[in-house]
Amino acid sequence: MTTASPSVAAAADLERDLKSGALSLAIAEIAEEAARLILPYWRTGAAVETKADDSPVTQADRAAEALILDRLETLYPGVQTVAEEAVSVHGAPAAAEDWFWLIDPLDGTRGFVRGGEAFTVNIALIHAGRPTAGVVTAPATSTTWRTDRPEGGAYRRQFGALQAGEAHAGEEWRPIRVRDRPQEGMALLSHSVTDEEAARLAARHGCTRWQGTDSSLKFCLIAEGRFDAYPRTGPTSEWDTAAGQAVLEAAGGRVLADDGQSLAYGKPGFVNGAFVAMGG
Fold first, then answer.
1. Whether 107 contacts 190, CB under 8 Å
2. How far apart are CA 256 and CA 215, in angstroms?
3. How many CB atoms lie within 10 A of CB 165?
4. What are 256's strand-pairing partners?
5. Which one of 3.40.50.720, 3.30.540.10, 3.30.565.10, 3.40.50.2000 gives the CATH number of domain 8-176?
6. Which residues contact 64 (CB under 8 A, 6 or more apart)?
7. Which residues, in sequence order, are bridge partners of residue 103?
8. CATH code for the domain defined by 185-278
9. pTM of the predicted structure, to 2 decimals
10. 100-142 pLDDT, tens per residue?
């Protein structure tokens, strides 16, 4: 976890690549590389350890995080990184800088250990407390969602295995957009809530039906117009939500904290309170 301020040149590179869209494409390639690294560990009975907060961690988490940190430092040296596994070992930084990365190398580790498909790789760039670029990759389904330029636009693609000599492989990027709220909206909820609580939360946000889903996939499924809301009352870490929020907002959605303002980043301990993610 780096804490040095980025050089003037690095900050200029971030701004230039954000404006051109090159940054989101670059971090999408990194997330997909991490996904290819993770997949050989999936459904193999890989060893699981328990962290101090009682959450699981595997070699896949650690290997993916090391790869992501190395690639980001090569592209944009000196930019602060706040990454889940580094924080679990060294603690969170005392404060966030103006530019910093939020990284969850394997979101949904519990489901990953069980052999489920709803786990993701999350990389987000934060500037002045706002997620300005983000990528979410689902290794099990070879799917990536990303932001485009700061003025908006979100995209999805299926990526493939790399062949010898290829820099990347996969479908063309396709634009995605939230849907207008239907008469009977559909909510996504964490599997950690009871059925009674899930039904209550869904109804509070105008949804008559709900479905339980793990990881940051919830943001992306709303972003591509398949669902309508994701209310969350329990605490989450900022690296759990930043990339998904970036994608959802780029697709025309919103992520609001309890005060009605857009969920912000760089808070003490990098911890979120309650929020709701919404489509149209």
1. no
2. 18
3. 5
4. 262, 276
5. 3.30.540.10
6. 34, 37, 38, 105, 106, 121
7. 83, 123
8. 3.40.190.80
9. 0.91
10. 999 999 999 888 988 999 999 999 999 999 999 999 999 999 9
